[in-house]
Design brief:
Low-confidence stretches: none
Largest sheet: none
Radius of gyration: 12 Å
Order of helices and strands: HH
Strand content: under 5%
Distance between the termini: 22 Å
Structural class: mainly alpha
Oligomer: single chain
Length: 43
């Protein structure tokens, strides 16, 4: 959620694309959504 808010607050399209491509989406995915999901577990 933080990265989405940070991306949306940026003025530069280049910075938005960097966050989107490196942290939020997976361009190598075979699925149409290409969203990166990370499971967090608590020990």
């Amino acid at each position: 959620m933080f990265l989405i808010a940070l991306r949306d607050s940026m003025d530069s399209e280049q910075q938005k694309d960097f966050i989107n491509n490196n942290y939020l989406t997976n361009i190598c995915s075979e699925f149409p959504d290409k969203i990166k999901l990370k499971q967090v577990t608590k020990d």
